Amino acid sequence: MASDPLPSWNDGAAKSAILDFVARVAKEGGPDYVRPAERIATFDNDGTLWCEQPLQVQVFFLIDRVKELAARDPGMGQRQPFKALLERDLKTLHDLGKKGLLELFFATHAGVTDEHFAEIARTWLGHAKHPKFGALFKGCVYRPQIELLDYLHTNDFRTFIVSGGGVDFMRAFAEATYGIPPERVIGSSVKTRFDSGDDPSSLTKLGELNSFDDREVKVQNINLHIGRRPILAFGNSDGDLAMLRYTLAGKGARLALLVHHDDAVREVAYDRDFKLSPLAEALDKASEYGVTLVSMKNDWKTVFESQV
Amino acid sequence: MASDPLPSWNDGAAKSAILDFVARVAKEGGPDYVRPAERIATFDNDGTLWCEQPLQVQVFFLIDRVKELAARDPGMGQRQPFKALLERDLKTLHDLGKKGLLELFFATHAGVTDEHFAEIARTWLGHAKHPKFGALFKGCVYRPQIELLDYLHTNDFRTFIVSGGGVDFMRAFAEATYGIPPERVIGSSVKTRFDSGDDPSSLTKLGELNSFDDREVKVQNINLHIGRRPILAFGNSDGDLAMLRYTLAGKGARLALLVHHDDAVREVAYDRDFKLSPLAEALDKASEYGVTLVSMKNDWKTVFESQV
Q: Looking at this predicted complex, what is its ipTM?
């Protein structure tokens, strides 16, 4: 290959593992050849494709939603957990857990139609900025991962997001940002209501959880939505371990990777103590399971897309 | 266009509506242009892409499964509803309803892994033949619809199956037969179990229904799986009406079609009296809702792929 397809990756074991894997599965007639139809790659989103510190991006979106609702209902801001949200009280928010925050995110959008929600999310993503890095949240996606997605697409992979994040929130930016169309975004979801009687024009989001796309559920949703085992999977937390192991357990060439957030200077150094999405078991067992660790500090030349 | 992309369609209102619609949405700079990313088309399967008479194909698959199970448990064949299945007692089977038969189909595969099920289904589809037409069931797909799918693919549409049929059963043949990969097949499904503890290699199908993909649920599943409103939808029964109306309710150019099985000579003439999947309300309201009726008798030059 004439030019480096992954210029934001430093030379090292992780970059070599990726380049070697893609070359092997794409080599027609080679022992590890995989036909394009079966080149499925799944990516977690929060912490894998974009920054999830100090809170997942959709929690910042939730905070702004609660601000709006509290403007109409002044008592709301005095009640928990809304008070903690408005005050960005990280300790209380982290204690709520990823699922608790997700349920709050869904509850505060109950009654909104699917198309109206998409509009709200796109508008917010058009101006909302990260409190520490100053860039638009959309700019806090990882440059090396954008290159990797492009590289996989060029090599006839079909990439999917498989994330605990709200599916409709991710769909509002995944196509423009990652080149991943809505039907290849799998996430947590709510139940919806469709009334074909009078107005068959839209679906309404309900407050009730349909799927919390984390841990084993990621594998179940891969089966439900994709119907094929991935040959490459990329995550960053214990919530991704089931998906990584399911990927590795298939026959033929496989690659599973984990971002290790060990870069306190350019991002945040964290793993087992991050309550919203700890990396502990997966870190301890990575070597035993054959998972490749990607060090943000050592393997990534550039971190954020906004820095390019 | 030099050659006819739909040679198995007779000239008439239905064929013109299709050719006109595709030309309009694909015409760059035209008033009805739709960018390729948004060219989503959804198709029902049973009765729309292949024959569903006198029973849906997966009921024949179920009958053979029950034969196998009954060979190991001789009392089983004496008990209902298994007796009715083994005797192909159509009246009793039609009374069970589509959902009842589906639940039986799922129940008799509980405990099977996803990959083993795919193998069983592919093997069966490789030899099982239609009792009336004599061809492999795979050959009982409709030739005009295969041409339509090809024509849509050529015009940068992404086609999806959205059917009440079992999703894993359809995925066993949809890619080879229709050119529709597993991730673009949406259907009824069961819950699954994934145990990442000792053996992270596979999912096991449970007997419990996850989704019965019919009527309003088709629209909810389109939202969950695709995340975009189709611009074209094709069905053949009241179970498809919600999907057709949801499709037509979007802004811009839209096309919704219904196969009307009015050909007693080449297939079976039926509509409102077919208990497993009646066409009644959708037939009565087609004109009011702007749905294009496709007459098998008049609009299709050839019916089955096996006749080509």
A: 0.96
